[in-house]
Amino acid sequence: MAALTRAVGPEAKAPPQPKRPGRPRPGWRWVILLVTAVYFLLPLWGALRFSGISAFGSVISEDGFGSSLWLSVRLAIVTTAITLMLMVPTTVYVHLRLPKLRRVLDSITILPVVIPPVVLIIGVLQITKPAPASRRARTCSPWSTSSWRCRSPTGRSTPACGPST
Amino acid sequence: MPQPSETVTAPGSLADPGAGRIPSRRGNSPARAAVKAAARYAGILPFTAYVVLGLIIPMIAVAVGAFQDPGTGAWTTKNIGLATHGAYLTGFRESIVLSVLAAVLPAVFGLLIAYAIYTAPGRGGAALRQVTITASGVFANFGGVPLAFLFITTLGSSGIETQWLKNLGWDIYGSGFNLYSVTGIVVVYMYFQIPLMVLVILPALEGLKPAWREAAESLGARSASYWRHVGGPVLLPAVLGAALLLFGFGLSAYATAQALTSGTIPLTPIQIGSFLSGNVIAGQGNVGKALGLGMVVIIAVVMVFYILLQRRAAKWLR
After folding, report:
1. Residue A79 domain-assigned?
2. Which of A5, A83, B76, B267 falls between 20 and 30 A from B93, CA-CA?
3. Helix or strand run (H / E) with residue A10
């Protein structure tokens, strides 16, 4: 069937069918993409205007900025390295040797996304629980002993130290 | 007796049936098969250990703690009772309402965007696809304080967009909008939910084979009837599954809502967070675990439906 259509050539393509049918009218697509672009770019622009370009210079010399950034970078590097070391061999192995487990692996890897991180943290703390007093420091700073807290843009100190979503 | 499945030989080596299956030569006693199977599964041991240590044991700890008295450690259902009444019940309700809204709306918009890209023609379409996928990967990872900041400067009560709209004669705060309400949180959550939907649903859309469309058309189907009888049913499980994923993502999101409302809206993750930071009435220390268990139960139900839908979706797409 496919060979037949290919063989007859373009000139045999008779009545002017709506070719590549189902394609929406271009206007429709542009409206969607424009609205999307506005929704995603306007907040970025707003934040940039609000804080001003000059803020980027002063924030670098801000007290504690360097150590916070370094902590974030270290966390990112270490977690990425562990993830790669663990998941690349496992994924390859499952695909090659245990294809039946692929669906199971799929489902397991979704769990950490949908299980609320706060719940996971409660569980981890329950197991590793030392004295209740040192709990907070442990939650907020797994890498250094100094107390580290997240700050909201208004400068309020919040206990929001979970993952970023 | 050689195992048929083990005798995979290259076409040329048929003359020598012994080649290439030395390991299976000595028969296959049950013990040997068991050892082989065990060796095969040993490859996923590190991953399994990690999942058990990092996911399963903490979950069990939450479940056990939910039924224990924080002081004495005795078994009790008091925590569960507290977690399913009053402010905590409101928390569950608000969380579910928020997550449903923050799943359905992004699912619709994400599907529209993915469809707009999927149908974009030619080289421009390919470029558009690349840009969108890259941007989605970036935006899907937005969250927490930075995301809250973006929206406070834009749609906050003195945000830039709010001022613009006011100058145009539309006072959005006057007409009921509030960034620091459930509606506001939904608007903010869409910032990472829509890209996530695009990333999840685009492969499914692209899995629709053009041949199906051509077949439907050569049988006289119009666009609407193609979507009703072929495209729609094939795509529906994938779309619903993606929406469930977004629901779970919205339910577990914590830092964004916390940063935005600083806890003024009763959402279950924020309530659990307040247990973490030690704002606890004496004797209620384990109510946080009961709340956690409640969320895990909700997620478990969602996951069951998700897996069923995935199975269904995989029937045609893949």
Report:
1. yes
2. B76
3. none
